[in-house]
Design brief:
Shape: globular
Distance between the termini: 45 Å
Strand order of the largest sheet: 2-1-3-4-6-5-10
Number of helices: 12
Number of strands: 12
Strand content: 15-25%
Largest sheet: 7 strands, mixed
Helix content: 25-40%
Order of helices and strands: HEHEHEHHEHEHEEEHEEHEHEHH
Radius of gyration: 19 Å
């Protein structure tokens, strides 16, 4: 089985989808001739032509608005917002139009679009290239929100998202594009070519939306994570020696509540970690759900580890980034509670 980076897996997913269905189109800023700022669309224009993979003006509202119109007429656009930080001009189109088209038309129209966005920090991108806006989408009925943590999932989830009849926000942790990252920025990066989840089947396959994965079996405490934080969780568990079970959510909405509840009922403790700011982050929803569904099984309060409530700093990036040391302290405290 070939090994791929997450970039190659995402490109492979779009290639498979475009080959199988002529209605799939790909566009966004620099995605055509240039192949995207991260090269996720490299070669697609040469293979499928300028009518199916093309560059758009620097206008996120226009990109998403055009995609919604295309979707209403039967096409399946997969569009790229160059960084998740740039999606705010398009937020009204995503929330007010794409998310509600099926409902407001009584099912007469659907909106099968995918909006791809590189997300998260760890690349010294500063405050306008490092944001994690997932909670802004999970709050909106009618949207699905996906955050893969590895090449295998990235390809399978993206194909599933493109084939889904409703709008999907597909957030790609840019720090994982070329290899897993455990939060130790001073260590060499392990490439996907040496990681088991870098093995990605050729051709068509899907990973179902709304199904989490257990990345590490454990009995002492549950860690709920997604994206880059899956590897931070693995590092923290290894460094503390705590027998943690790590749940990779993969899809935030729809959420695999059954897997979460089963894990927490088994361990009796839960820590939630994400890179976005703490206040009103998606971790708050996870903590509330765990408390609601697992209250009589909990041996300690649910703990959240997250980014600080401040714009993402450039000079102090690693003080902001919720790494294994911070998570490790939370795990120890939860075990001692």
């Amino acid at each position: 089985m070939p090994r791929m980076t997450m970039i190659e897996a995402i490109r492979g997913a779009m290639d498979v989808a475009m080959e199988r269905d002529d209605n799939v189109v790909v566009f966004g800023e620099d995605v055509g001739y240039f192949g995207g700022v991260f090269r996720c669309t490299q070669g697609l224009q040469q293979k499928y032509g300028k009518s199916r993979c093309f560059d758009a003006p620097i206008n996120e509202l226009g990109i998403v608005g055009t995609a919604i119109g295309m979707a209403a007429y039967g096409l399946k656009p997969c569009v790229e917002i160059q960084f998740a930080d740039y999606m705010y001009p398009a937020y009204d189109q995503i929330v007010s139009e794409a998310a509600r088209l099926r409902y407001r038309s009584n099912g007469e129209f659907t909106c099968p679009i995918v909006v791809r966005m590189p997300t998260g920090g760890g690349i010294f991108g500063g405050q306008t290239h490092s944001q994690s806006p997932e909670a802004l989408f999970t709050h909106v009925s009618g949207l699905k929100t996906v955050v893969p943590s590895n090449p295998y999932d990235a390809k399978g989830l993206l194909i599933a998202a493109i084939e889904d009849p409703d709008p999907v926000v597909f957030l790609e942790p840019k720090r994982l594009y070329n290899g897993p990252f455990d939060g130790h920025h001073d260590r060499p990066v392990t490439p996907w070519s040496r990681h088991p989840l870098g093995e990605v089947p050729e051709g068509h396959f899907t990973v179902p939306l709304g199904k989490a994965a257990i990345r590490r079996e454990g009995a002492a405490i549950t860690i709920l994570a997604y994206g880059t934080m899956v590897y931070v969780a693995e590092a923290a568990a290894a460094e503390t020696g705590i027998d943690a079970e790590i749940v990779d959510l993969r899809t935030l909405l729809p959420l695999d509540l059954d897997t979460i509840v089963a894990s927490v009922k088994k361990t009796g403790r839960c820590v939630v970690i994400h890179e976005a700011t703490l206040t009103s982050g998606f971790g708050a929803e996870l903590a509330a759900l765990v408390q609601e569904h697992c209250f009589f099984h909990l041996e300690a309060p649910v703990t959240r580890v997250a980014g600080w409530d401040t714009p993402y700093p450039h000079a102090q990036e690693w003080d902001y980034f919720p790494g294994p040391a911070r998570l490790g302290r939370a795990l120890v405290e939860a075990m001692e509670a």
